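Researcher: I'm comparing several assemblies side by side, and this is the next one on my list. It has 646 residues spread over two chains. Same procedure as the others: predict the full complex and return the structure.
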Amino acid sequence: MPPLLEIRGLCTEFRQKRGVLKAVRGVDLTLEPGETLALVGESGCGKSITAASVMRLVPPPGKIVSGSVLFKGEDLLACSEEQMRKIRGNRIAMVFQDPMTSLNPVFTIGHQVAEGLRIHRGLDRGAAEREAIAILEQVGIPAPKERIRDYPHQLSGGMRQRVMIAMALSCGPELVIADEPTTALDVTIQAQILELLDRLMAETRMGLILITHNLGIVAERAQRTAIMYAGEIVESAPTPELFENPLHPYTRGLLASLPEFGTPGEKLATFAGSVPDLRGAFAGCPFRERCPVGDEGCESLPVEMKEAGPGHLVRCLKSP
Amino acid sequence: MTALLQAENLVKQFTVQGGLLAEKRILTAVAGVDLELFPGETLGLAGESGCGKSTVARLLTGLIPPSQGSIRYKGRELSAMSREELALYRKDVQMIFQDPFSSLNPRMRVGEIIGEPLAIHRMGDGAQRRERVAALLQRVGLAPDHLSRFPHEFSGGQRQRIGIARALAVSPKLIIADEPVSALDLSIQAQIINLLQEVKQDLGLCFLFITHDLSVLRHLSDRIAIMYLGRIVESGSRDGVLSRPRHPYTEALLSAIPSIDPQKRKRRVIARGELPSPLSPPSGCPFHPRCPYAEEVCGKLRPELLEKEPGHKAACHFSEKIYGAR
């Protein structure tokens, strides 16, 4: 059986006045049913554009230039727009970071949760509404019968995020892509939302791509983790292995810089420099200028992913 | 030791217009806060959004007047200060903001931004100011040629460095930093935390550090105070509060933080429900509707913030239970 999702050699570019920005540069990812894959990286590393590419929702002037996105063996990049519309929100759903800007302020939350059911399942208004109430109840919204008449501004941040999750789950998707689903929330609410996602996944065997920069969430929730830097996956491994035995200097640096591991009052480890400009031609390892172990050898050659252990891939010439 | 800054029973209420015909309602953002800041120490103030921690910062900097209570700086009551004294207070107490994108004037060059506080407080002549600005720029790790650039030319981390340089310009005694690193990327966050730590040690500054991120707080603070719904529910030494919490909210907050270290993943105490609205706070203990330890008395009687062990205060009727549970 093919994996739930298999991304191969995905490249997405933005044509700009000042040159072509290569936001995603050859990403490979695989996800099995029931699995959580964490995609980790700092702002601008291409993690959200990777997600948008899977959904074929890259904002213009962005364009997917090569690669394939196999969803149960079917290449989404070869689908027609009409076929895509039947998949989006139905078999593949997305949860966005900011529920305030992703929910429509002029429709009730009941209308928005029921919309997918009417479109994809062909339910009539009454049936869609009953189903919406059931889903809202499932995601922990108290008194859903009354709340479906509410507009997004009448709900708290945590409740809005639950509505977003209810919308994503309404049609029983096989794959959910959650882009920073809890970043805008307080920690006590974040814990509630993550427990909810865990419970729903155990019930439905759906796959989850969790995009985040919070390494604590990653360590607790994801089976596999992929670290992204400057448009590339630089390391990927089963999560416990990645945290115990990080191989890429960027992964090591990220882990070392966490206040959680620092001694109070002492200096935290930091990187020198900043992320390279991804416009124009690009050769060699994008991390080399900030890398503590890199040398001239890293400057010219494209660095290939290599297997360092069972399921542990790393893109570094210097790693064992 | 005498406190540098002392706030007593600080209250701030705002009037909210409910709607076109709705009655005006009172929102109590800060409902009686006591704080003391001693020279050279860092006090961490933690709490979730809407708990009133930023309002406390605005009250302490004198940006808004309190509805009740007193703020004393070096023993002098803020509301009784003369214009000259107030000007001096505003020089001694500086602020660093969360969002490095909206807290810098986009029409001013970096040199002007950092030099403006010097001009306002009439410190030095033109040449001296330029010299001071150049030294500050270097202090926070920016290059001399950044002086003539505009804020939009900088990354978030660099902008936060500019904000720090601006706060340091007039040689303050106390810096109030409201979520200074939460808008930054991980690797940048560590750089700014290090910079704050450095300037604190080099200049012997007193810091009030406001954040919702307890791991950052643990790294930077000497003492910690936890706020919930406008009140301080627990305060004490860093290790006391973080390793032996005496309030159930602190316990829930600590256990909700996802941890990388599998050893630290302990029993999860999930706070039920959500933060109540400060427009209609619950009766009794403000945390009781979400509290796993709550009993009947908690809904009736609000617990006072009392010393549970030397230097460690908590506002809970059953703080022994929390202590015993670990």
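Model: For your comparison table: Chain B touches chain A through 38 residues (CB under 8 Å).
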